[in-house]
Amino acid sequence: MGSYMGGCCSLEPHQPRRVPPPSLGIPNMADRKPSVDPARKGSAFDQPIDLDHVLINELGQFGLFQLRNILLVAIPIIMSAFMSEFVFSAAAIPHRCRIPECGEVEKSTNYDREWLANAIPESDSGFASCERFAPVTGINGTLDYCPPNIFQTNTIECDGFIYTRDNSVVFDFDLGCQEWLRALAGTLSSVGTLLVLPITGYVSDRFGRRMALVISVFNLALFGLIKAFSVNYVMYLAFQVIQTTLGAGTFSSAYIFATEFVGPKYRVITSATCSSMFAVGQVVLGGIAWLVQPWRYMIMTLHIPCFLIVSYYWLLSESVRWLLSKRKFDEARRVLEKAAHVNKREISQKSMNALMRPPAAVATAEPVEADPGVLRTIIKSPILLRRVCTTPIWWITTTFVYYGLSINSASLSDTIYLNYILTCAIEIPGFYTAVLILDRVGRKPTLSGGFFFSALCNIAFAFIPNDMTVLRLIIFLLGKFGISMVFTSLYLFTSELYPTQYRHSLLAFSSMIGRIGSITAPLTPALMEYWHGIPTVMFGAMGFLSGVLILTQPETLGTKMPNTLAEAEALGTPQSKIQSN
């Protein structure tokens, strides 16, 4: 998303041990190792009172307080999609060689001329974009009359270009026939979403979720606005990567706010709602780009309102999970009491005490074994090792296909704005379809089905004739629908596979490796020079691979979030199931 999601959907790595997981409403049990009584053979999943218990039984899993938080953070989630404006500000523009012998001295001269066939060879799509017939020395024509005898039969490369439009950096910075350089804007944007992960993670865990959100949106607005005044392409690219490096944490910070305080019953629908808001942001982006077509004014229109989010520092309450993890119990108590008041519920003194006074470690005669660390734990656990090798491939495929389809939508037809809006809008039913089936058929059928369905559509698209415009659009949108089902489900399924102690770092690891997909996706349109179907066939092949790999992992529907390594390894066994009261 957003990405994801911007942003779409990144989470922060390099966390200290005593932190809550970043999303999906998971209780923080990372620092408490359960005491083992040899005389008792209870379930590994028996736990004391935690925040999830309080939400389910006392505060309410989804009340007015949670709804208010989601409505507030929906606005920055929408704004996080604005970093994808490079789809329009750096859009490819049809171009041809400038013919100075015929009086063409400006790149904005009329694109169509009656004499073009005399000066430029034809190609499959019309006139050639990057070559022209060599001129005969000493003979010139005019804009109205340029006969064939002033050109030779051999061709040469262009030394200047004429463009059909001026609403892109391609026109301003004269990037004709430099497709890979033009595509670099999207790649650098995705590189920034990778670099932002440790920065946002540090700010979020050191200064709180609220501060991380406000700083991220402010950076998004500030550097986006500066980018609108770029004087050359190097400056544009520099601020593209600076903006995402310092502002792409907007989605993950807002996502955490939305999900950390909802009960387990509403995790899936809250996750889908956040993803849908990112899709709404993309639709808004497409609409504004359509209405405000000069790229500099478009960027200003998108980013100036983002400065209003600074007010969220006073409007939003800090995350309770973060406050508890940092032992800021007085502030946590105030937020819990406020939530109880807004939800018209009461929190018992017993539960409040349990949250404010977490149980001390049980004293034993034997020395306590030191935490072996995440790397050594992975190596010693074959089950965890297989998951760590598998989940990043899902993330690479999801980001590669998701962003690749959005970016390639501009090449479906000449109506690039409508294509982009439709391609983004189809995500919303995809997200909520996942909500409807995740808790009914399970995580594995939803994810593998989404991968396989998207893969079939993408491969089929490559072989549909270009003149079947409506059918091509329908199949393309169905491919995006399938990968959107995967996108909103992947956070949840990946989180449910890992123990609390390592969940944040391993989820962040998968997300970071997954950025390979979003970094390479903007380059795929350039491959259409060799064959128009290369991008979608690549999307299909990756989708089939990930669909098969999903089937190698245990089903997590109806299981409790694993807090320890033993619980994570036990997923798929009867004892991992939540016992009904």
UniProtKB/TrEMBL annotation:
GO annotations of cellular component type: membrane
Q: Which InterPro entries match?
A: MFS (IPR011701), MFS_dom (IPR020846), MFS_trans_sf (IPR036259), Sugar_transporter_CS (IPR005829)
Keywords in UniProt for this one? Answer: Membrane, Transmembrane, Transmembrane helix
One family from Pfam that matches here is: MFS_1
Species of origin: Bombyx mori (Silk moth)
**Membrane topology type, per the record?**
Multi-pass membrane protein
Please identify the protein, giving its name as recorded.
Major facilitator superfamily (MFS) profile domain-containing protein
Q: Which residues form a coiled coil?
A: none
Where is this gene product found? Membrane
Bilayer-crossing residues are 70-93, 180-199, 211-229, 235-257, 269-291, 297-316, 384-405, 417-438, 445-464, 470-493, 505-524, 530-551
The chain positions of domain Major facilitator superfamily (MFS) profile read: 133-558
| Gene3D superfamilies documented for this protein | MFS general substrate transporter like domains
Q: Where is this region: Disordered?
A: 1-41
Residue spans of biased composition, Basic and acidic residues class = 30-40
